[in-house]
Write a structure and sequence with these properties.
With 462 residues, this protein is α+β, with helices and mostly antiparallel strands. The protein has ten helices and ten strands.
């Protein structure tokens, strides 16, 4: 994954994660709240059904109370009258009272005529619940509720039913009635369906907000990336052009140096040798003087070659280190220009990578060139030191100064040397600070710890 894709991923992925997290939290919170509400609603509905059953049972007991209290344990007439009363006490299509004796024999069942007279103690519902046995047990305990599955008279289908059973102990009967719970469960199911619909609606709303947001962020990232890429391409083209221009300028400088310096010296050597040769053939007494002048011209050519090679790559930088190379550079500069330059490298203790040392040397070389050509200075100094493994170099002069912004905007090539120095520092993660006033100019070059040489690498003498 390249840098552009990493930037897009780091921008889009946190947004997607945040949206998914918020959506999940809202969904969970909504489901919890609605689920709690549905549970409370269902409990309240069941409580209302229980109250209804108690009221219906009390109504039935009130209807048979006088007959039951006046009858004896074996009063068949009273039992028949009670059967008739309970059979007539139905309510709605699915509301009725039923009676079983404690042995499981059905006494009253208004909706299912095949049940009276038969024993149903072993009857179980589809869930395996012994319905009649459990209802009789509740009646013997003094009355209680029991939920089971039973055939619904109005539809003929099995449905959940909640019944309340009470005992008529004198006759060993269990009296009960029940209500079907399918309407409660239907309302609960409808509420849950509404919950799912609301959750889907929430997801749709979040999606309608999130998807355009993600696309917008993605598009913005792409636009920024394309813009940065165009800027980078422009800077690369500019840098390439400047490198080519710099190479051509350096070649032109070398050509001038070779033509005006070494070439002229060598021509002088040739003329001196020719003159000495003629004088030797003519046995002139002045032949040795001509030879000496030729040797002097040859020494000048040698010095010029050394100066050019030193400008291209100072040998002292590789052999003796940055401090020694700067000292030699300043000595040659002072000798050539007459500008008094001093070096303070005593606090410099850190080792530098060869490339970083070369960068600092080139910065100093370019700064000296600017001092010579533009500053009008009479003196200057270079100070190099190390602070917690970070190398610092300050180059100062007492010249006229300059306007950095004006120099950079004066022409397409304005400030080329300054930009080269800044780019040399930026290559190693460092910076170049420029402070110029009418009293002089100060350049501060700073390199990070990463520019230092590794312990097992080449050591640089300070």
């Amino acid at each position: 994954m390249n840098l552009r894709h990493q930037i897009i991923a780091l921008t889009v992925i946190p947004l997607v994660i945040a949206i998914l997290t918020v959506t999940a939290f809202i969904t969970w919170q909504s489901a919890t709240l609605v689920g709690s509400s549905i549970g409370t609603f269902e409990r309240n509905m069941l409580k209302a059904k229980e109250t209804e059953l108690l009221n219906l049972t009390n109504l039935a007991l009130s209807a048979i109370q006088s007959t039951y209290d006046a009858a004896g344990p074996d009063d068949e007439a009273a039992k028949e009258k009670v059967r008739e009363i309970l059979t007539s006490l139905d309510y709605g299509k699915d509301g009725y009272f039923f009676v079983y004796d404690y042995d499981g024999k059905n006494i009253v069942h208004p909706r299912q005529a095949f049940r009276p007279g038969r024993n149903w103690l072993d009857l179980v519902d589809p869930d395996g619940d012994p319905v009649i046995a459990n209802l009789i047990e509740k009646a013997k305990e003094g009355g209680g509720l029991h939920q089971y599955k039973w055939q619904k008279p109005s539809s003929g289908e099995m449905a959940d039913k909640l019944s309340f059973a009470v005992g008529l102990d004198k006759w060993q009967w269990m009296l009960g009635t029940g209500v079907y719970l399918d309407d409660v469960f239907a309302q609960t199911a409808a509420a849950k369906a509404d919950l799912r619909a609301n959750i889907r609606k929430t997801f749709m709303v979040v999606a309608l907000i999130a998807v355009p947001s993600v696309l917008l962020v993605f598009a913005a990232c792409m636009l920024v990336t394309l813009r940065e890429r165009r800027m980078a391409d422009g800077k690369l083209k500019e840098l390439t052009k400047r490198i080519i221009d710099t190479q051509e300028q350096e070649r032109a400088r070398l050509a001038r140096e070779l033509h005006d310096g070494i070439s002229q010296n060598l021509v002088g050597v040739r003329y001196a040798i020719d003159l000495a040769s003629r004088k030797v053939r003519s046995k002139s007494d002045d032949a040795s003087g001509a030879i000496d002048r030729g040797a002097e011209a040859l020494n000048g050519a040698i010095k010029e070659v050394r100066r050019l090679s030193h400008d291209l790559r100072p040998r002292a930088l590789d052999d003796l280190g940055l401090a020694a190379a700067l000292q030699a550079l300043l000595a040659a500069f002072t000798e050539r220009t007459g500008i008094d330059m001093s070096l303070d490298a005593t606090p410099f203790r850190g080792n530098l990578k060869p490339e970083a040392a070369t960068a600092l040397y080139r910065v100093a070389q370019e700064a000296l060139h600017n001092i010579e050509k533009h500053s009008g200075a009479t003196a200057g100094s270079i100070r190099v030191w190390t602070v917690r493994g970070r190398v610092r170099m300050i180059i100062a002069d007492n010249g006229l100064g300059f306007d950095h912004g004006a120099v950079s905007q004066a022409s397409p090539t304005g400030g080329l040397g300054l930009r080269n120095m800044q780019e040399r520092m930026a290559h190693f993660g460092g910076v170049l600070l420029i402070n110029s006033t009418s009293e002089g100019t100060t350049l501060t070059a700073m390199l990070p710890k990463s520019a230092g040489a590794k312990p097992d690498g080449a050591k640089e003498a300070a």
